[in-house]
Structure formats: C-alpha cells, structure tokens
C-alpha cells in the first residue's frame, strides 16, 4: 500500500495539462456547475487507454486500441440531477457543461463551494499502466501459448480462441463539498474459450481471470496455461453432460465465482437508490433478519488488486469494507453521496459510473460471503438428491419482486451424498430473501472469483468481483429439461 | 433539442475526417483501410412521483480505423476526432498490424459489391423538443399510470430523444453516410399486495416522433401490466405448451440469427453448423430482412463494410435458406458475403397470423410467458433454460399470474415445434413479430 495523494498530481498532469487547465482552474468550472439553487456539483475527469488482442486458429488476427476521455459535470438540487459531458477537457467545455448541468433548476440560493481538501485514501492497487507491462511480442506469445496448451490437452478440441485485454484508466474528481481525489486504475484480463467435438456433440468450455495490475503479472503467473487447461477440462465435462433435472431440490454451490448468487439475490437489492425509492424487496428491512443465521455478506472495495476494488470511488469517497448482512441481519446499504444524503446515511464508497459520459449510481465492488465452519465434503454428503453447481454464466434480478436467476455452465448431480454425472447448463431461479433464508451449511473455504465479472445496471457496465465459500441452499428451483 | 445539432454540417465534417484518415493511412503505408465515424446527440429526462429526477444532455462521437498491411490487420479508435487524434489512431492501428498474423481471409469486401444505390431511407426525423416539453411528456406518462387504481409506487418515466450521423468510408473509394434519429418514452410502475411488490413497464420507441404512442396510453399500459402480476403463484413442474409474448418471440428470432451468423459458424460455435438447406421450422414459416424499408428501425442501403444490402430470406418455407455473412466470415466459409456485416436489418416474418385468443385456445393448458430472465441460452448446443414470469392458462383461458419458474428446451426442437404466430405484432424494434406458440417445453416450478 502506497500513500495516495501523489495520484492527484499525476492525474492532473495527464487529464488537465494537455487542455491548458490546472487544479485552480477547476474552481471556475465548479462555479458554473454550482448555479442558483444547486446544492452539490462535481466534475469528473477521465481518460482510458484500452487494448485488446484476440487469437483464433492459432494466430493473433485482431488487435484493437481505443482512447477515450472527457469530463462529466453533474449538478444536484434535492433529488434532481442535471448532467452534461464533453470529450474535450478545456476551459470552454467546463463552462458549457457546467451551465447545462446547472440548468436543472433556475432559481434559488447560490451556495458557496467548500474549501478544497485532498481525499486521503489507501491505494488498493498499484497505479501502473498495465498495457506497458508486456511488449507486443510477449502479448502475442502468451496467446499462442494458450492455443498450444489447449490443443495439446485433448484431441477433441477443435477451436481455440484466446484474448488478452487491458485498460489504463485515470480519473480525477473535484466536487463542491471540497473533495479533490484521483485514482489510477489498471485492469487486465486473459480469457480462453474452446470448442470440443466428439461423437457428433459439440460443447464449449471457457476460463479466464485478471485484476487491477500489470499485464506482466498475467505472464508471471502463467495464466495462459492455467486457463487453457481449465477451459479444456470444462468443455470435456460438458461433452459428457446429461439433461439436467427440473424442479425444486437442494443446491450446493462451489466456492468462488458462484458468489454471483449473492450479487443477484441480495447485492442489487441493497443498493441505496432502490431502497431510497422503496422499489427493492429489501426496502425498510434494516435491522431485520433477511438471511439464515451464519450468513454474513460484505461489499469490500479494499481487497488488494481485485477486479472490483477501488481506492476511491467515482465521487472521490475512499473504497470501504461495508457489511451488508451480519449473521443474517440486514445492517447496511451501499451508498453514493446523493442517496446517502437523501436517506440520512453516510456514503460507503460505492458510487460508480461506466465513464465520464454516464451518471454515477450506487454499485457493488467485490461482494463476498464470509467463511463458515462446515467441511465442504460434509456439505456434499448431506445431500440425498440435488445439484452441485461449480461455474456460472450470467445472472439477473428483479429487485422489486426479489426474483433472481443465474445460469450454470458446469454442474453435476448429487446422488446419495456423492457428486455423480455432469448435467447440462440449467438456469436456477429463486427469490432473494427466501433463498438467503434457506442457506443451511456454509463451508470454511471462502474463495474469490478469478476476476471476470461485469455488472450491468441501467445500461452501464462496471467490473465487479464476487466470492463465497461452498454453500448449501436447502431448496432452489432447477430449470432442467427432465421433469 | 436544447443544443443545436446541424446534422448536415456534422455529415460534412465526419466525411472530411474519414477522408483525412484514409489518406493518412495510405501515406503511412497501409495497403487498404476503412474508417467509421459517428456523432450522436441527445436529450434524456426522467421523472419520478411527479418530480423531475434527471436531465441529461449527451453528445457522443467516435472514429474507428481498421487498416491492412498485406494480409495483416490493425484497428484503433478514439472518441476524439481531431486531426491530432486521427494521426495517433492511424499510427496505433499500423503499429498493431505489425504484430498480428497473416490472415488470408482478411481485407475489405470485394470492390464490385460496394453499394451504388444509396437512396435516402427517411430515418432522420429530428424532434425540436425543449427540455420543458420533454419533462411535460414524461410527467403526463407517469401520471396516467399512477392514476390507475392499485398503483402504489413508481419507478418513474423517461423520455429520450436523439439524432446522429454516421459515416463509413474505405480505400475502394466507397463513402456512405446516414443521418438518423431515435425517440422513446418509457414508464415503470410498482404495485403491492400481501405477498410483496411487483413491477412492470411499457415503452414506445420510433425514429419519427409522430409515430410515438400517446404518453398517457404508455403509462396506463405500464399500470395494467404491473397490476396483472399481483397474486402470482408458482406453476406446476411438467411439460407444457408455451406462448411467448411478441417481444420475447423477437428474442427467439435473435437466437436464430445468432446461430446463422457467419462468425459463430466458422468458429463451429453455432447449433446451426452445416444445416444450410435443411428444415428447421414448419413449412408455413419464412423469415427475411428488408434493409431498404423506408423509415424503419434498422434501414440502411449499405452494411458495415459498404456492401449493398439486400432482402435476404433466411428461412424459406421452414428451411434454412441463407446464412448471415460478412465478407470475412464468407471467405472463412468459402461463400459470398450476404451484406450482413453489422447484423440483420428489419427482420420480418412471413406466416399465417392468428389472434392471441385463438393461440390461447390452441394451447389449451399451458403457460403464456410475458417476461424472461437471465442468459441461459447456449448458442453452441441450442440448449435453452431461462427464468420466466407470465400466466397460467386452462381451457384456453388465462387463470392467474405465475412467477419464479423456468422454461427449458432446445432451440432446434422449439423451432420445429412452432405451432402458430400471433397477429399482435410488436413493431418497436428491428425484428417485427407477434406471439409464438411452442408445442412443448419443460417447466420447473412447484
């Protein structure tokens, strides 16, 4: 962990200097955004450099590079939000966007801005340019290695595609409450996807991961080989999969990525905006039991180098460890400044936005269920007939009714306490609060996912992490075809 | 619109930028190049409980360059279309092309296929709408919904209006430009009973603001859709016929097109590999695209590579009649492009239509699905398993709402089991279809 304040100078040099601005010039911009009747305004500067390399048929056939950047200006008056943005970071653009955003109200008192203070926060990752961590030749070599490993692993592998992507993101926030904060966020990911063909059947397997660090670490950890082997393993399992059962039964979720259950079943329902508006199935339940005893869920932006981590959020609030459910009792929401203020609560460092061209909202970072006491093998043994779900595709929730789904991409039958045949991917469906009440065993093997999650909300995608121990739900609906 | 947007001036500007990028690519040593550039501007307002919640002015632009050095390819893009940025983008794309592998299939589309017929398809209908007018429309929409008895909470109403210009040019000398607009109004409401809350929504969307539905009607429909969900039970587990609401039937067509897409086929990642010419649907069903339709959602005379678009028939009398190919995927498959770089445009079906009541009668006992959740569709195998909500039907009559269940099957069997198509066509998106009745799917519920 390094001291944090120097990021502001670095970010200012990258974001402001090219357009002839400096930190002092932001006061003028804020003045326009803090028009009559506005009670809070912020300026959000961002620049991203994004790179993606894709291998197919043993060759890197595609690579792309994208540069994006600009400033988003937001003016708040009570529950009202005015928003405008520009991809020019210049004095003129600040004046234009500031005036436009402040136009949300046309009368009222003009509030003075607060004295500027640099937010102090610990860095949860090293602010490197992750794209510079490897040479182009090294990037190509990593992808080719994944291809070789996957093809050598099994003769049924007919297609291999691998991708390496990275983003170098620099943000600076200046708000009327005095906030001055910056963050330099690396993000990388390596992915392998294979198609296996055998006896006329064709199945896919995929694996990947990454985090907030340099591409060099992906090479040093030899993820190309690791994910290639894992993708092949999953495809071969799926080649043998039988039809999944349909109906209600016990479900055991493996540790790690199946934590997407938490993200869908409880996470979204605990975001501040939905609770302020009363549209969440969890609204008004603070202090009440919303999950079985033993269930503790936190949103943790502070995990070192994780995909969902943030040193400061997109409003400049330091990333935090926020308990949401403690021993089954609802104890916290995830908040941004707007919703925290309107609900009389404190911001929790969960304000996130896809880019300067999007409004921030309360969003998850890394959402994790803490470890329990149970031996994972005992959890499997306790099930007479059910499903053991190891990996998932996507999920979705209706936060109002509480209904959530998530789709297994690797799952097995459990028969008489033993994991037996693999079953075809099936969607599991449940009701968030009910499902959390049916958690009956919690393993001691808490694990984080490998760094692959993207969460979508109101059309905005942000990287997130999940984690959980092996978990048993006494009853969940499994959407197979065998009724 | 609160900010002035001169589409013709933007068109000239983007054209100049695209030509500048092509000239630069050539000068710096690219053998071929293509450029896409666009600018979009919009106004979005949302209201909730009778008050303004957000007013958002958007202006997005971008330029993307793909160039070829021999058979090597490099791409780069930026949201900054200044000359300095164009230089950086072209240089970066060239740098990348030094590291990508030789690909015999890469390159621009065949010059002989470049679009020469470039009619104005009337997809640009700007709306001179002030912020205050936009707010009034959204308020009227939400209020009409909240006035319906039983609506207890609102998630708000939103209006968005936007227009833009896109340009595509390549080193064959092709240059295509198109101005377009899109306007929409939506409303989401919440109702509550002892069992908990339910929400649903409705929306209207069109290129021409004149074609939008009445705001009050959208609000009332959102209320109706929300209220009818109250008192939902879980359906029994078993095998039943399923009626897909029009917007969900459009999703099934989306899965079909995904399987016919060249990229999935040459990667062997489609459940429709090697199926050209074979039956997939009943013989009374055909499906085609009409890219040159006047004023439609996805109308365009040229595709993402400048190739002249055409009326492709994908399904003819039940059989797969055409794949959906770009020039790259076509070369990989040893075929010709179908002018589908960028996807299918204005998909229409050709089938005998019947009323929803008659479809319900035909179904007898089963489920009418009005909402699907999650991504449980495997494009490689066609296996299908998704969360759903809707209504239980007995003797052809709707009995009660159902929720928290899944429907599962395989797309191939579902398509073969298409029993009938409704006349309740949803025309809001690029795919127009009515309800679909599928003969049997596995329902997992109680």
UniProtKB/TrEMBL annotation, chain A:
Transmembrane segments: none annotated. Residues 247-480 form the Metalloprotease TldD/E C-terminal domain. GO terms for cellular component: cytosol. The keyword NADP does not apply. Gene3D superfamilies: PmbA/TldD superfamily. Residues 130-239 form the Metalloprotease TldD/E central domain. It holds the Pfam family PmbA_TldD_3rd. Keywords: Hydrolase, Metalloprotease, Protease. GO terms for biological process: proteolysis. InterPro entries: Metalloprtase-TldD/E_C (IPR045569), Metalloprtase-TldD/E_cen_dom (IPR045570), Metalloprtase-TldD/E_N (IPR002510), Peptidase_U62_metallo (IPR051463), TldD (IPR025502), TldD/PmbA_N (IPR035068), TldD/PmbA_sf (IPR036059). Residues 41-102 form the Metalloprotease TldD/E N-terminal domain. GO terms for molecular function: metallopeptidase activity. NCBIfam families: PRK10735.1 (NF008006). This is Protease TldD.
Automatic annotation (TrEMBL), chain B:
InterPro entries: Metalloprtase-TldD/E_C (IPR045569), Metalloprtase-TldD/E_cen_dom (IPR045570), Metalloprtase-TldD/E_N (IPR002510), PmbA (IPR047657), TldD/PmbA_N (IPR035068), TldD/PmbA_sf (IPR036059). Belongs to the peptidase U62 family. This is PmbA protein. GO terms for molecular function: metallopeptidase activity. Residues 125-230 form the Metalloprotease TldD/E central domain. It comes from Halovibrio variabilis. NCBIfam families: PRK11040.1. Residues 33-97 form the Metalloprotease TldD/E N-terminal domain. Residues 237-445 form the Metalloprotease TldD/E C-terminal domain. One of its GO terms (biological process) is proteolysis. Gene3D superfamilies: PmbA/TldD superfamily. PANTHER family: METALLOPROTEASE PMBA (PTHR43421). GO terms for cellular component: cytosol.
